[in-house]
Amino acid sequence: MFASKRLAKELQKLHDKLPPGITLVKADDLQEWIMDIRVVDNNPIYVGEVYRLKFTFSQSYPIEAPEVVFVRDETHPIPWHPHIYSNGIICLDLLDRQGWSPVHNVESVCVSLQSMLTSNTKKERPEGDDNFVRNNRLRPRDINFIFHDNQV
Amino acid sequence: MPPPGNEYAAEQLKTQGNAQFKNGDYEAAEALYGQAIQKNSNNPLLFTNRANARLKLEKWEGVIDDCIRSIELLKENMKAYFYLAQAQLAINHPNEALSSALMAYELCSHSAQQTSNAATISALVLRAKKAKWEIRERERIRRRGDLLADLEAHLEVTYKKEQEDIQARIESGDVGKVEGQEEKEERRKEWEKKRNDLRTAFALSSPEMLQKREVPDYLIDGITFEIMVDPVVTKNGRSYDRATLIEHLKRSPTDPLTREPLSIRELRPNIALKEACTEFLEGNSGWVYDCEDGERDVDARWAHLSSS
After folding, report:
1. Is the ipTM of this complex over 0.95?
2. What is the pLDDT of residue B297?
3. Do A5 and B248 count as a contact with CB atoms less than 8 A apart?
4. What is the pLDDT of residues A10-47, one digit of tens each?
5. What per-residue confidence (pLDDT) applies to B262?
6. Do A102 and B248 touch (CB under 8 A)?
7. What pLDDT, on a 0 to 100 scale, did the predictor assign at position B308?
8. Considering its fold, how many domains does chain A have in total?
């Protein structure tokens, strides 16, 4: 209901100022936005790479979480991380139905993902990545991730 | 009380009216509700349903009549006040519209289920406030315009008199022609400068010129990013607009910031903040309201009510 108003305000702010390493690529409508993020320190896993994120908003945003996935193209790989599947699906509590709160926004999600990468030391995919990528037909928000570890 | 047979007939007619309403045939719905009222004029719902059909048909006076009759039958009548406010706004009675909308909001926020109608109604409250502000603003500009015109006229009279005096002195030989022309030119420049200063002063005194068009963060709801209308405070001291926080709590009964359990019953009105918001809205011209995205889909939100 208030999705369009709230997104319009967020967009205005994003045009104004963004934290380092985060850029707005495309926000032609109030349904789908593209953001780029890169890690600003020299974590060797991510150095020199830029990652592309796709945000999809429902009518109930921000009461409902946006759907956020990494997308791959020639210049943008999917970052290595034990919580990021190789198809771009992210397992992060704040994007989950339970973990989301309407005080989050596009910028804070980007910042959280950025810091999730910054603090990571394992160049790994989640357990069962191959199987998940091959078989998953669910939308990210309908997947029940089990947050088995809190170290990463 | 109508005979029981009539009550039944009225109920049948209402059901048919609801069906026509759903189909978008508001004329037919209005007529059917009218027939139902003839059978049973004690049911407030028949009046609010007809008011809703009349809203669609833009029969504003009819809406107002129906709402008033419905309220006579049932005092705590949120729907009637909601329709009434819309009709009053449409016929350009923003003061009445505002009190009706506030009444609807009051009834809504005290209702047991604290429905999502709160958001729709608070949007209507804002629209009424905006309409009220616009009228005041037009009046202010008109008055200011008069004052400016008066003062400019004064300056011009003085200027013309000076010019005539100089001309008279030239003609009588008191001053030389060249000297006189120079003085005339000087006076003309002085007059133009005074007039421009006056215009600048008036331009500066209008609040739109001076105010920074930004609502302070402490008046902004962290969920909608808009100025709050009815702020409520949570256990950790943060305030949110009641309507939007309830939307969140219905989905997830947690504090948006801390994720601690939080129920609707635990919310408390933040009266001082509400006053600050109201004061800001009243003092700060209509631009605050302009952030509205125009028409919202009121119909969809009320669909579940119109078939009651």
Report:
1. no
2. 36
3. no
4. 998 888 889 999 999 999 888 999 999 999 888 899 98
5. 93
6. yes
7. 35
8. 1
- The answer to whether residue A33 is domain-embedded is yes
pLDDT band for position A145 (cuts 50, 70, 90)? low
Q: Are B80 and B44 in contact (CB under 8 A)?
A: yes
Catalytic choice (A27, A91, A109, A113): A91
Domain membership flag for residue A144: no
Contact B133/B286 with Cβ under 8 angstroms?
yes
Which residue range is the domain that position A113 belongs to? 3-137
Cβ-Cβ contacts under 8 Å for B279 (sequence gap 6 or more): none
The question of whether A110 is a catalytic residue gets the answer no
Lowest mean pLDDT among A41-45, A55-59, A80-84, A131-135: A131-135
Of B119, B247, B256, the CB nearest to A103: B256
CA distances from A48 to A113, B47, B272 (A): 17, 68, 51
Q: Which of B226, B247, B257 sits opposite A101 (nearest CB)?
A: B257
Residue A115 in contact with partner chain B when CB distance is under 8 A: no
Residue A40, domain member (yes or no) = yes
| Cβ pair A1:B119 closer than 8 A | yes
Provide the residue type at B147 as one letter. L
Question: Please, what is the Cα angle at A11 between A6 and A13, to 5 degrees?
Answer: 100
Q: What CATH number corresponds to the domain at position A36?
A: 3.10.110.10
Residue B289, pLDDT score: 54
Instruction: Note whether residue A112 is domain-resident.
Output: yes
